[in-house]
Amino acid sequence: MIQLTEETRSGWRVVSVSGRADSEAADALEAALRSAVEANARVAADFATLDYISSAGLRAVLEAARAAQIRGSEFAVCGLSAPVRKVFDMSGLHHVLRIHGELPC
Amino acid sequence: MLLDGKLTEIPRLTAETARFCRQHSLGEEVEFHLNLVLEELFANAIRHGGCEGMRDAASVQLEMLANGVAIEFADRGVPFDPTTAPAPELDAPLETRLVGGLGIHLVRQVVRDLRYERVDGWNRLTMRRPSREGARKGES
Fold it and tell me: Which domains does chain A have, with CATH numbers?
């Protein structure tokens, strides 16, 4: 199960992602992040209440980052818990994504 | 436990993993890693192994060892040996970054002693999620 909510904070469109970003939830996550990136110049994915992520969730984040790059939007990931951060690190995605400990907004 | 070849089986797999972790007083990090390993292998069998829609497509067994958790995952998909799969290019830039192979890469990061055999139409994988890593963070 994944829960997605959106709000604007200090000029950033923040997509808050709670629950599990797994193979079942990846399509919903990708759709939410892509539509935010297509409609806003600065988008942050707030993972502070994300309990779990697998490669399917990482792929959704990567696709959103690609869409942002094509459109010229800023895209950041923030609020990662230690175990979620570790999956990003293991995947090497921390090299290609802007990752913040705190919200950029 | 046996799983049908559909992603909607993941919650059942997650619940069974949670039950196992509670039973053996395993911490959150171990549970996270067991979920990760099992989901990656199961999703791979469905997406790439031809297990989509297959009844009793995969089998999962967890067993507590003195030095970690023994994991056995088997599926009835096409023969696939993840121990010889090429590693993804982890340093590639965003534009060219290929995410294929990422799931298996994560599995290899988390487990030790990954072994593969093909038996009677099943891909059978055995591996161990060592307890040492969890113990360092105060978990069993």
Answer: 2-100 (3.30.750.24)
